[in-house]
Amino acid sequence: MSSPADIAALIRPLLDRPADSHKGDFGRALLVGGSRGMSGAISLAGKAALRSGAGLVTLAVASDSLATVAAFEPSYMTIGLPHDEAGRITASAQLTLEPLLASAASSVTAIACGPGLGRSDDLTHLVAWLFAQCDKPAVFDADALNALAKLDGGLPKRPMPAAPRILTPHPGEFARLVGRRIEDRTQQRQAAEQFAAAGDVIVVLKGTGTIVTDGRQTFINDTGNPGMATGGTGDVLTGVITGLLCQGLAPLDAARVAVHVHGRAGDLAAGSLGQISLIASDLIDLLPLAFLSCRSDR
């Protein structure tokens, strides 16, 4: 289990920034997702990345949804990607994304893919390319996980040394990834550890006592509440992980800190609003207090 003291020790260096800091010091996040009817998911993730400290955040979305996503939050940037007749990103978006992911000092620090993405054969190919070829730390969530689950032969092979990959499934998505439904939480933990070790990935298996594992170390989260069982909270978590990756936390640390703070924001929201009225944007609003509340933990 991640103790509050462990989490606090990882967060404290992020809370007090040097006086001469500028936005480039805190990383550049690129989040890929959004489609017609699901623009809120990528917007929530983008705003959460900002609230979690990323210096610059860009959302790459289906151009069909660009105006809606851009109107959600003025602090992030947006890029329109080619879309099909259903408003989903197409495989030709790779031509736009490749230069953004170039290994230059001014390029992206960390990426996330999946919130509001939708499903299609084109998207399956695009997600597989991002997973295999992007040399940045990357978070895969939601429909990006469903795309990975559709691939023959398991997760795509990556060049060595492999860039870190964080997968954030709920139990249903995890069942699709491993090819079977697992109801028992202890067995879910064992399966998550095995899957993480075999794929050289970090698994964040969401649920009561979210499991964070790289196959060698495993952490069980103890923050959060049933009020968080509402649409969009997983998208917020994706943004928090990405924002912490941008600031240089090691991938496993970024994942376990994000899960803790995300749950803590949920607990603050439930305390002031009640569980029944909690919505995903409440978590973003309370992320600042959640981070600050960790400072004094011992």
Give structural attributes.
298 residues; alpha/beta; 9-stranded mixed sheet; 11 helices
Short structural description:
This protein is 45% helix and 13% strand. It is α/β, with parallel strands linked by helices and 298 residues long.
Task: Outline the secondary-structure elements.
Blueprint: H1 4-15, E1 28-33, H2 39-51, E2 56-62, H3 66-72, E3 77-81, H4 94-100, E4 110-113, H5 121-133, E5 138-140, H6 143-150, E6 165-167, H7 171-178, H8 185-199, E7 202-205, E8 211-213, E9 218-220, H9 233-246, H10 251-273, H11 280-293
Parallel strand pairs: 1-2, 1-4, 2-3, 4-5, 5-6, 6-7
Antiparallel strand pairs: 7-8, 8-9
Task: Describe the 3D structure.
- By secondary structure, the chain is an alpha/beta fold.
- 45% of the residues lie in helices and 13% in strands.
- It is built from 11 helices and 9 strands.
- Strands 3-2-1-4-5-6-7-8-9 form a 9-stranded mixed beta sheet, sandwiched between helices.
- Helix 2 packs parallel to helix 11 and helix 10 packs across helix 11.
- The model has no long low-confidence stretch (mean pLDDT 95).
